[in-house]
Write a structure and sequence with these properties.
The protein folds into four domains: 14-104 and 191-270, Rossmann fold (3-Layer(aba) Sandwich); 108-163; 276-346 and 515-615, Rossmann fold (3-Layer(aba) Sandwich), CATH 3.40.50; 358-506, no CATH class. It has 27 helices and 14 strands. The strands form three sheets. It has a six-stranded parallel beta sheet, sandwiched between helices. A six-stranded parallel beta sheet has the order 11-10-12-13-9-14, sandwiched between helices. A two-stranded parallel sheet has the order 7-8.
């Protein structure tokens, strides 16, 4: 008689891992897409897969000089998986940008040709745009003129580049540096066109696993799937993801519909993270999207959900009062201190005001070419502040002379000049310069400008061309880059403590984060702050999602054509934020019309009557 195994919360989804492990056969490989909602243990399944590969195929792969590639979404996720895989050299775990760069970095000639073609095409496009422009005094016209000058300069310099560089930390300040988007575009195009590169990928990495696949750049996802089909007998691709958690525009829409019929499609139904009330809310949020419902754990009953509707005035006081409300409602005194709560804002500006780096952030954010790098912490223009001066200051505060010396040796200009004879006199001069720099922090909070002037004048560390221009020739009205340089100068006039607050925030170490930035993370107490007015974006709209504001004509048109709408994006984002909570969740909804907003929220049926609280 066949033995009957009792199904418990712990092993309900075990079959998904068994299906995944069955794909790892070097002679008959299979590919898969693991569909799993929030809190279902996608990372656990990924780590289990790595453990299985190590035990069954590890020795064979190592002896043949092959590895398993694991692509993650963020540096933090990358570090976490490395730790859980015990830093096993069999696994090359990296972000998509680092993985893409490692594939293409040796193809200098091809990169140069690609950049020439790409830049030339952009130049023609910009010249056409300027020629067809009726008004030459607009900001758009002037910005296009500036971009055109830069592109022409870059095109002229390409032939002199011996080797291209890329730094995933954002220190891409040299003329031969590639930015993040260029690395991904080049990798996708090279992989799709160059059979040699395809074979290198397949031979080196017979197994490729991609976490958060729904947000991985769509061109690369497409080319990986194409290569898998071409080399199906020796190349396995494993995708881990949840379409409801796609929140970035360059991710592949309707990924699940693109999965070939030959792939395995295991799924996980349990939510191991959140208490029942929070799981129920997340289920109802996604119900109209795909009808998929998660099952809460039997040992995680209860949980608290509250949505507070309030006016825009005095948000700091309101949010403090809400923390006190949540403490009483939950009986959890940890709600009384914001440091014990993860508060989520839709826009970085909202967090910058609350965390104390408003001037630094707003000044840099007003420079259009800085926006993306500023949001993800990769802005090369300020790399010297975030990647050199900040760790240098911390090592000095901790009196860690070894770490201080390491930072200086890694970044100081004289160590980068291999033709320079490092005499005792030069080293002594460097030591004195560094001491002069660190002494600025004694009993005061120096401005970034003060610190960078010492770095510049004493030539201690490399600084970006944008910052160098401020010291070489301060901006004057009428200069080509006057506005950009003025905004950068305004940011540098911020106290250095704003850089510290900004960097803690960008790296997820602060009590505040963005709705998008916490994907994959979990917290016992979560406060979601909804304020469409402060967000200044049309990409998301909570007012529309809750029915308080009507759909736009574009939304209606896209809806009829089966295209993504503002409501679709916002619903997915709300799902991501609410599903971060383990025990208790508060949503703060700022509005000009409290009563009608509360009524619209009630009509969604997502919240019980007692869960909607008006703060007058």
């Amino acid at each position: 008689m066949e033995e009957i195994i009792a199904v418990t919360d712990d092993n309900r989804d075990n079959n998904a891992d068994i299906i995944i492990q069955s794909c790892f056969d070097l002679k008959k490989p299979k590919s898969f897409f693991l569909f799993a909602g929030a809190g279902s243990g996608k990372t656990k399944s990924l780590v289990s897969a790595l453990d299985y590969i190590n035990k069954t195929l590890g020795q064979e792969l190592i002896l043949s000089g092959r590895n398993v590639a694991v692509i993650t979404f963020t540096n933090a996720a990358c570090d976490e998986i490395k730790r859980r895989a015990y830093y096993n050299p069999l696994f090359e775990i990296s972000t998509i940008h680092r993985f893409a760069w490692n594939l293409i970095c040796s193809h200098t000639y091809d990169i140069r040709v690609w950049l020439k073609n790409e830049t030339s095409a952009k130049i023609v496009e910009a010249e056409t745009k300027l020629a067809n422009s009726r008004n030459k005094s607009t900001k758009t016209y002037k910005d296009t003129e500036k971009k055109l000058v830069k592109m022409k300069r870059r095109l002229e310099c390409l032939d002199s580049v011996r080797r291209f560089t890329y730094n995933p930390d954002g220190l891409n300040i040299e003329s031969n540096s590639l930015d993040h988007s260029e690395v991904l575009k080049i990798a996708a195009e090279f992989l799709s066109q160059k059979e040699t590169l395809q074979k290198i990928l397949v031979d080196k990495y017979p197994i490729l696993l991609i976490d958060e696949s729904q947000d991985t750049q769509k061109d690369l996802i497409n080319v990986f799937m194409d290569i898998q089909e071409k080399y199906a007998n020796r190349f396995s691709v494993g995708l881990f993801g949840d379409i409801m958690q796609r929140i970035y525009p360059d991710g592949k829409q309707n990924l699940q519909e693109s999965i070939p019929s030959t792939w395995e499609t295991p799924s996980k139904t349990m939510n191991h993270r959140s208490r029942k009330r929070i799981v129920d809310l997340c289920n109802v949020i996604r119900k109209d999207v795909d009808g998929i419902e998660q099952i809460p754990r039997e040992d995680k009953p209860g949980g608290f959900v509250r949505i507070f509707v309030t006016s825009y005035d005095d948000p700091n006081r309101k949010e403090h009062d809400i923390l006190m409300h949540m403490s009483k409602i939950t009986g959890d005194s940890n709600w009384e201190n914001i440091k014990n709560v993860k508060a989520l804002t839709l826009e970085h500006k909202m967090a910058s005001i609350r965390l104390g780096f408003k001037n630094f952030y707003e000044s840099l954010n007003s420079i259009s070419s800085y926006k993306q790098g500023l949001m993800n912490g990769s802005l090369s223009a300020i790399g010297v502040l975030t990647h050199i001066l900040l760790p240098l200051h911390k090592s000095d505060l901790n009196n860690n002379q070894f770490e201080k010396a390491r930072i200086v040796k890694k970044n100081a200009i004289i160590y980068k000049n291999k033709d320079l004879n490092l005499t005792n006199e030069l080293l002594q001069e460097l030591q004195e310069s560094v001491n002069a720099l660190t002494s600025c922090w004694i009993d005061k909070d120096p401005t970034c400008y003060e610190l960078l002037r010492i770095v510049y004048e004493k030539n201690i560390f490399p600084i970006s061309k944008d910052i160098k221009q401020i010291f070489d020739s301060p901006p004057e009205e009428g200069d080509e880059n006057f506005q950009k340089t003025s905004n950068l100068l305004a940011a540098l006039n911020s106290p250095f403590s704003e850089v510290e607050h900004y960097w803690e925030y960008v790296n997820g170490q602060a009590s505040f984060d963005t709705h998008q930035g916490v994907k994959g993370l979990q917290f016992e107490r979560v406060m979601v702050i909804i304020d469409d007015n402060a967000a200044h974006t049309s990409f998301f709209s909570y007012n529309k999602l809750f029915g308080f504001e009507p759909k736009s004509e574009t939304d209606i048109k896209n809806e009829k054509e089966g295209k993504e709408t503002t409501l679709d994006r916002t619903r997915r984002l709300l799902y991501v934020t609410c599903s971060r909570a383990i025990d208790s969740l508060s949503i703060v909804f700022y509005t000009n019309c409290i009563e009608s907003t509360a009524s619209a929220i009630s009509e969604t049926g997502w919240f019980d009557e007692g869960e909607i609280i008006i703060i007058p």
